[in-house]
């Protein structure tokens, strides 16, 4: 291993790994990815892993998610089977009064090409008979699906390695300096130099920013998930709130708590989540729960990805976001364009770091 | 439900801790996920020596009864078939009986969840007839069932070899002991000698390629030194050792450390057996894989510390008592071939005291003293 690289990526979650893979495809750059743990020890190993599009608002954000979802089948052909399934997504509502909102959503998303149907109770139950008859209706879109995050991250890394990218695991970055246009990255295992630096530290990105002297406007939001025992196929779609994995387990939940980096699960939330699950799918009342886990989302203050150059520090870049599973193929592609050509095929203006400064003015 | 002390796990460590605590007048609740108390003692028909001094030499099954009977006149409540499944935000412990989840408010908690056997995965490992070596022991000693006729044992630690001996007595033919290393794991010369004398094939540098069969295991393909061999087998026992059961400690946010001699990942704890989670104590195999003597003594140690922290025992008495229990533990573990376990335990505790800025303990140089 030399210690001079063109690009050093800090963080080997789904975002850092995807960037490394896409960047490695051209084989133009010497790439090193550094991770303080193993690739799934962060948020990417504790996620629902929906590739979810249809009700992401405003519509430009839905559009971005759609482009990313569209990339999945091609990605799978390139890196191997990541168990991506375009199941279609159902977001139920329980109150007739929500239908109006659903119709407005469909109208808005149609403007950017996202196809949404607003279903009544019978239509929903026809698609997904296990859902509770107490629902009033749902929005539905073919574009949604889910993926196996473990295979996804592993295959990103394997493919990147095949293309010559290097990885250093169990190696925390403890200091970053910049002089003469080169970054000096001090890690537990030694010092590395990079012409370009990408921060993709997920929930730890704020800490990485501090090493560079910048304040990154993100917060940590815990989410707790229930996993059932493997069940016979019960639901076919990705449903706002749950999905069934290939091995039959159902993953349930989308709680949100700002408790810092605390990965405990608590019975308060787990019991609420279980109740929600049974309200949606009455059959789940008989299922055994084998495991609960929690993950820490990294949530930019306005909810949208922070992607692109870091202001005032030349050649420093950031990629931090919620919904990184959905967005990873697109983020990897766009960051590659940015690093190799200096411009992107999709305008990143809305995602740029400096939008936060602009708001303050 | 409210109690002074909640003990999670009704095995030997939990029962002995309950006895010590309740003797000081502490209101104690024991929850046990199984249908009866006693834990692993319930299938240990062998005679256990090297027990703490207040116990006579006795069979494991008898010891289970002894421990349970000792509680009968004390203020100890037991809930069988109850499992700890989580904690609430306010620190209450959620215990499920399969129908309802009961929140329990406890001033102190001792977790004595013991250890679980490690699995080994190969194609066909989920077929009926593939089980852990401990499961085979339960079938024989508790259920009086012969687990199979033609067996392969995967792993060569002392416990596996003891069961191999017992297989012979039970009329189970052991067709081989398979070890992936180039030597046996067990260093117990007497047992190794007798296994060799019995002519049981030892396959070193070997592993199971797969197990196949319709509805149950019928054939196993073995790979030794690169050569494969197919055998007619109806019982595969996996003896890969045991590791502490950690879920309750994870749920309570305890910090962990890795100590291979204690069974891998273990919660950190102090000389008082207190974990990094306030009011939560640890004992038994959960605190590091040891002998029955060590299991019972750590239970007692944790209970003494709980009694002190709740004001049922003054500091001076508690410190004296702890010192004498640690001395006894030192003697038992060092004479039972567990010197390394004892040293690992001391290293863990010392590290934790330093990290957590706890007072150093005069007990740290115990390992230098003779018994
Ligand atoms: C409960 C839950 C459900 C979710 N559901 C979905 C969903 O359905 N669909 C979806 O698209 N998204 C979902 N998300 C979000 C998604 O999982 C995340 O956006 C994504 O995993 C973030 O990936 P990442 O690579 O940015 O972060 P991470 O996976 O956390 O990776 C960051 C890496 O950086 C490393 N690192 C940090 N600091 C350092 C350092 N100093 N030195 C070296 N390495 C360092 C870490 O070890 C880590 O491996 C969910 C999240 C949660 C918590």
TrEMBL record, chain A:
Q: Does the keyword Ribosomal protein apply?
A: no
Q: Which Pfam families match?
A: DAO (PF01266)
Molecular function terms, GO-annotated: oxidoreductase activity
Keyword annotations from UniProtKB, A to Z: Oxidoreductase
What SUPFAM superfamilies would the database entry show?
FAD-linked reductases, C-terminal domain (SSF54373), FAD/NAD(P)-binding domain (SSF51905)
| Gene3D superfamilies named in the record | D-Amino Acid Oxidase, subunit A, domain 2, FAD/NAD(P)-binding domain
The record places domain FAD dependent oxidoreductase at 6-338
Provide one Gene Ontology cellular component. Answer: cytoplasm
Question: Which PANTHER family does the entry mention?
Answer: FAD-DEPENDENT OXIDOREDUCTASE DOMAIN-CONTAINING PROTEIN 1, SARCOSINE DEHYDROGENASE-RELATED
Q: What is this protein called?
A: Sarcosine oxidase subunit beta
Report the source organism: Virgibacillus phasianinus
From which lineage does this chain's organism come?
Answer: Bacteria, Bacillati, Bacillota, Bacilli, Bacillales
UniProtKB/TrEMBL annotation, chain B:
Q: Which InterPro entries match?
A: FAD/NAD-bd_sf, FAD/NAD-binding_dom, Metab_Enz_Cyan_OpOx_G3PDH
Start and end residues of each FAD/NAD(P)-binding domain: 4-298
Q: Which UniProt keywords apply?
A: Oxidoreductase
Tell me where the signal peptide lies: none
Entry's Pfam families? Pyr_redox_2
Question: Molecular function terms in GO for this entry?
Answer: oxidoreductase activity
What protein name applies here? Answer: FAD/NAD(P)-binding domain-containing protein
Q: Which organism is it from?
A: Virgibacillus phasianinus
């Amino acid at each position: 291993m030399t210690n001079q690289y063109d690009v050093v990526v800090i963080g080997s979650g789904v975002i850092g790994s995807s960037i490394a893979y896409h960047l490695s495809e051209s084989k133009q750059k010497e790439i090193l990815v550094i991770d303080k743990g193993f690739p799934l020890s962060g948020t990417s190993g504790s996620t629902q892993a929906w590739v979810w599009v249809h009700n992401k608002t405003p519509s430009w954000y839905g559009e971005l998610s759609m482009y990313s979802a569209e990339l999945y089948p091609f990605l799978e052909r390139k890196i191997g089977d990541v168990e991506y399934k375009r199941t279609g997504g159902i977001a139920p509502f329980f109150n007739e009064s929500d239908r109006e909102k659903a119709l407005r959503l469909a109208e808005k998303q149609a403007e950017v090409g996202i196809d949404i149907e607003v279903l009544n109770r019978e239509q929903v139950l026809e698609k997904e008979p296990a859902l509770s008859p107490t629902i009033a209706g749902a929005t539905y879109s073919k574009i949604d699906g889910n993926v196996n995050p473990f295979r996804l991250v592993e295959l990103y890394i394997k493919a990147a390695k095949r293309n010559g990218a290097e990885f250093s695991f169990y190696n925390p970055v403890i200091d970053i300096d910049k002089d003469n246009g080169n970054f000096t990255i001090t890690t537990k295992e030694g010092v590395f130099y990079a012409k370009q630096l990408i921060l993709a530290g997920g929930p730890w990105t704020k800490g990485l920013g501090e090493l560079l002297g910048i304040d990154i406007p993100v917060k940590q939001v815990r989410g707790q998930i229930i996993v059932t025992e493997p069940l016979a196929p019960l639901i076919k779609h990705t449903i706002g709130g749950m999905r069934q994995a290939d091995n039959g387990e159902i993953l349930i939940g989308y709680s949100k708590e700002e408790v810092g980096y605390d990965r405990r699960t608590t019975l308060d939330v787990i019991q609420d989540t279980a109740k929600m699950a049974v309200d949606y799918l009455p059959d789940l009342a008989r299922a055994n729960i084998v495991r609960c886990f929690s993950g820490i989302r990294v949530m930019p203050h306005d909810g949208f990805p922070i992607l692109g150059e870091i202001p005032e520090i030349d050649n420093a870049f950031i990629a931090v976001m919620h919904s990184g599973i959905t967005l990873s193929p697109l983020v990897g592609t766009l960051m590659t364009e940015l690093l190799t050509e200096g411009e992107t095929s999709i305008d990143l203006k809305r995602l740029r770091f400096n939008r936060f400064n602009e708001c303050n003015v | 439900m409210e109690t002074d002390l909640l003990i999670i796990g009704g095995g030997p460590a939990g029962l002995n801790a309950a006895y010590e605590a309740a003797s000081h007048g502490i209101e104690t609740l024991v929850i046990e996920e199984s249908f009866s108390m006693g834990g692993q003692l319930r299938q240990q028909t062998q005679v256990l020596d090297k027990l703490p001094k207040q116990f006579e030499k006795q069979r494991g099954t008898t010891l289970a009864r002894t421990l349970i009977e000792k509680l009968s006149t004390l203020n100890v409540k037991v809930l069988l078939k109850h499992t700890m499944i989580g904690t609430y935000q306010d620190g209450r412990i959620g215990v499920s009986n399969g129908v309802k989840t009961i929140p329990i408010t406890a001033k102190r908690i001792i977790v004595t969840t013991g250890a679980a056997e490690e699995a080994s995965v190969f194609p066909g490992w989920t077929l009926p007839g593939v089980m852990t070596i401990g499961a085979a022991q339960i079938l024989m000693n508790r259920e009086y069932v012969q687990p199979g006729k033609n067996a392969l044992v995967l792993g060569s630690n002392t416990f596996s070899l003891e069961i191999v001996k017992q297989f012979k007595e039970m009329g189970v033919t052991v067709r081989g002991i398979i070890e992936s290393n180039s030597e046996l794991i067990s260093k117990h010369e007497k047992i190794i000698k007798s296994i060799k004398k019995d002519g049981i094939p030892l396959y070193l540098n070997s592993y199971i390629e797969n197990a196949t069969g319709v509805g149950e295991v019928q054939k196993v393909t073995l790979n030794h030194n690169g050569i494969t061999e197919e055998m007619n087998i109806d019982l595969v026992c996996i003896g890969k050792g045991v590791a502490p059961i950690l879920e309750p400690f994870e749920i309570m946010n305890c910090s962990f450390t890795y100590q291979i001699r204690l069974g891998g990942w273990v919660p950190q704890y102090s000389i008082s057996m207190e974990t990094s989670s306030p009011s939560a104590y640890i004992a038994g195999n959960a605190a590091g894989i040891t002998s029955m003597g060590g299991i019972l003594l750590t239970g007692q140690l944790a209970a003494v510390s709980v009694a002190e922290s709740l004001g049922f025992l003054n500091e001076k008495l508690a410190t004296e008592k702890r010192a004498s229990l640690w001395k006894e533990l030192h003697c038992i573990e060092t004479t039972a071939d567990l010197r390394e376990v004892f040293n690992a335990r001391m290293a863990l505790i010392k590290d934790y005291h330093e990290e957590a800025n706890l007072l150093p303990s005069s007990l740290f140089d115990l390992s230098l003293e003779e018994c």
